[in-house]
């Protein structure tokens, strides 16, 4: 009985509200009102429309709905790298909470590139979207300025950008977890500790960890008990940093960037150096690989889930509210977790 319409629908590849109205023998206005629980219609008419919607597989056009309201219930999520387990966990925590609140997410990656970050922001601004949560690059870029100028709700997580203090942010405080790690090392007899920084990343948060180490290490371990080595992520830089650490008198090393820790862990194993006995190892970021490898790697946790969910709360509070643009700063304390990669000095 309905084969003519169904063939037409199939050839188009999607079903429109007009298809439903034509098939049910009612107006498009009637279909729309019944689906939204509005209007006064008989139960048989309502049931006919519902059955027709189900049979044809009609899905309401969210873009059209957005044009009729002030909200799209879509936000942007921008992180540097989804291959990095830390950022994958951060995105997961944010996307899950957004889903719980009935909000969808457009996820993008910057690949630690200001150019790619700004390209994402410009695409976002060309669409109807309610706001953005971003792990930004470390400078005031044209894309960031465009988002701020448009007054699109924006929240930074994990990192912040000096010069954009009006943007709310949720970051971790590296000092509590780092102090706990240094005290644990001292109690295990470690008198000299190396720290691997990654200044070429241009991350405010990663650089802040280095500064925190420079301040805390002399207080906990004493003057001259710590040294900082810069790594740029290249294999040659990693090899050089490892050689420098092994040539020093350091018995433990702390990594400010988890990817460096993963790489040097492999290099240490390749040199048959026993991690946890010959050299103790601690890294920022609680990523899954640190719990799977042997020995398990001690970590200074950023509490990514807490950061992500707090960032979502701030963004959703600002979307559609009467809040004046202004900064809201949230700092979440890091936590040290002892694992087998840290041992006592013989």
TrEMBL record:
<keyword id="KW-0804">Transcription</keyword>
<feature type="domain" description="HTH lacI-type">
    <location>
        <begin position="15"/>
        <end position="69"/>
    </location>
</feature>
<protein>
    <submittedName>
        <fullName>LacI family transcriptional regulator</fullName>
    </submittedName>
</protein>
<keyword id="KW-0805">Transcription regulation</keyword>
<dbReference type="Pfam" id="PF13377">
    <property type="entry name" value="Peripla_BP_3"/>
</dbReference>
<dbReference type="InterPro" id="IPR010982">
    <property type="entry name" value="Lambda_DNA-bd_dom_sf"/>
</dbReference>
<dbReference type="InterPro" id="IPR028082">
    <property type="entry name" value="Peripla_BP_I"/>
</dbReference>
<dbReference type="InterPro" id="IPR046335">
    <property type="entry name" value="LacI/GalR-like_sensor"/>
</dbReference>
<dbReference type="Pfam" id="PF00356">
    <property type="entry name" value="LacI"/>
</dbReference>
<keyword id="KW-0238">DNA-binding</keyword>
<dbReference type="InterPro" id="IPR000843">
    <property type="entry name" value="HTH_LacI"/>
</dbReference>
